[in-house]
Amino acid sequence: MTLKRWLLLITAFLLLLLTVSFIYFREVQSPEWTAINAAKEQATKAADLMEIEKVHHHIWQKNSWVVEGINQQDEHVYVWLTEEQQPVIMKATEGISEKSLKDNFISKRPLAEIKRIQPGLLDDKTVWEIYYNDGEKPDHYRYDFYRFDDGAFIDSQS
């Protein structure tokens, strides 16, 4: 075989590999994308959202979705969605902000390295979840839960 045919064969193989990889990725991600779109649609209807900023998937005691967005009154709101109960809608001003929670957390645990802060549900109550490395060696990761409305500590899990 000539060099030209080898290059053509390699190019065709790479294109085939890329196409198969793309189809596989799309097939694997499709259920997640469908669930995100369903959560967005449900939150938009429940809270009259004009704009969606973030969608969080929270799994602790139950599977829930938290959608952050801007409603018709130009207010930042959070919408908690589960299959078992009605949507819970709270304005951001009714709770402690993520930044305030993070600042309070860092002041109490300066060695901790925060990996993620997200809203969620714990015992059917709206919470902030902080997932972090406590700064000790060997690495030890923890989840702390704080009430969404006032930032009061609820529980810590390993």
Task: Supply the number of helical segments.
Answer: 2
N-to-C order of helices and strands: HEEEEHEEEE
Uncertain segments: none
Please list the strands of the largest sheet in the order they lie side by side.
1-2-3-4
- From the helix content, strand content and strand pairing, which structural class follows? alpha+beta
Helix content: 25-40%
Number of strands: 8
β-strand percent reads 35-45%
Gross morphology: extended
Overall description:
The chain contains 2 helices and 8 strands; from the N terminus they run H-E-E-E-E-H-E-E-E-E. The model has no long low-confidence stretch (mean pLDDT 94). The protein has 158 residues and is of the alpha+beta class.
Give me some keywords for this one.
158 residues, alpha+beta, 4-stranded antiparallel beta sheet, 35% helix
Topology overview:
Elements (H helix, E strand, L loop, with lengths): L2 H45 L1 E11 L3 E9 L4 E6 L6 E4 L6 H11 L4 E10 L2 E9 L7 E7 L5 E5 L1
Antiparallel strand pairs: 1-2, 2-3, 3-4, 5-6, 6-7, 7-8
What's a concise summary of this model?
This protein is an alpha+beta fold. The protein is 35% helix and 39% strand.
